[in-house]
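BACKBONE GEOMETRY TOKENS
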Amino acid sequence: MKDIDIGQPLEKLSHTSSGQVNPVSTEEWLTVHLNEHLTINEVEFHQPEFIDALAQADHLLLDPSNLGAVDIAGIQLLVALRTSAVQAGKTLQWATAPKGALRATLITSGLCMVIREGVSNLGGDPFWCED
């Protein structure tokens, strides 16, 4: 396994977005740790790190557990990462479900919509609304 920390770089795990163990060996996963801030002031520094992560592995795990502030520019960077991974035939999954500022910004951006007490992705990519 390899680790990269974004914002201080990124990291990896071996679970699918639904929490099940992924059939891909953990040595093949690169965990990308989203550290501290993913805001307009930092995205230009993180973009090359995301590009490097995509070049290093076919299976990436995003770990948002240490992520603090997130804004729409940060979400746009994550959308670009997701789009690039899909276009390249690579796997991108959450190590843990988005929570806190990340979840709130995903909802604000319209990628997720709050329905009653849960979060639902209405007609879009379920990647963004994992619980």
Remarks:
- Residues 7-24 have pLDDT under 50 and may be disordered.
- The beta strands are 2-6, 29-34, 36-38, 59-63, 67-70, 91-94, 113-115, 118-120.
